[in-house]
Amino acid sequence: MEILWVLMALLMLSLVLLPFMRRRRGMIEQVPPGHPDAADPANYGFVRQEELDVRMPGPDQDLLDVLDLVQRTQDYRAAAQLLAGTEAEGELRWQRVQAFAGAASLELQQRPGNVGETPGGQWLRVWRAEQPKDAGGAAVHAEFLVQQAWRTATPGTDEFRIIMEEAKAACADAALLAPGDPVPYIVELSVARGLAYSREEFEQLWLRILDRAPNHMGAHLAALHFWCEKWHGSKELATSFAEAAAARAPQGSLLAAMPLFSVFEHLPEVNLVSGFYQSEVVTKAIHGALHAVHSARADDPMLAHVRHLLIFFLVRAERWAEAMNELVHVDGHVGALPWTLSPDPAAEFAVYRALAVAGYEANGGSPATLPH
Fold first, then answer.
1. How far is the C-alpha of 312 from the C-alpha of 303, rounded, in Å?
2. Residue 6 pLDDT > 60
């Protein structure tokens, strides 16, 4: 009987989403003007799905320019120069280290280097060989190894552990080159998750980060994964960690949005309660994140991360106008949770965007009424 109820619920959900899903590639149907399904995101100046940038959550033109140059010329020097000029304690350095490492890892996956061919990401190897004392290159190399472990090996296998142990050593090397830089220790948070550090080991690592950057949002998000139920903690431990971070967040800090990320990490796989996204727990977390967004600096590098997750929750909660307000700020870039969990982040984002537009217009909204 329980299976029957689940199947019935899924059928009902498909009937609700089908009109919106039909707008996706190859499934467009004609609908009467004024019908909610006639809503067109292009009317709001939103970027076409095929033009959405999946590399980053928000704009960083300096990074994009350097990435394009490095990948076109296979010369690392522009990357080294950009990182050298990026503040060590800030969020931007961490994001740029991730981006360079991710680019090298993806290049290697696309061009593994068959006989007679140069493997992808060769510029990173040259960087490390020619400038072994460069702190930026060392941090990118450590993050590259972490991403390689998660991308190419299965957690728990010998191959995974070998790569992660190499990443751990690379983190230690990077930390020696830049004692005040939190990034090598933030990279090691992922190593801690992969190698199942004891709680005492993890706490020692976390204290090193707090000594260097106590309000680093990226570090808190990386640490949250360790405390989640699916890794080495529980829903209660993750919730406690997130709420403590929010409680001590200084004015203007996005740490106040941490509870929303904890809620997301512990969403039920099948939720048959229609009001779940309007429940007290979720509503409180949404309000905390909205407050954080409205209080944060406009140039905070982590702002886009919070806005993307808010879009997910606001659409699920049928808070269309608020979802549209967030979309205006981040449309064009989709390299953030929750979209990056999908095999096609741009398509996933486009579905939620279409739902937001349709819901907004069904309740009297229009491009003329949407603030920009």
1. 15
2. no
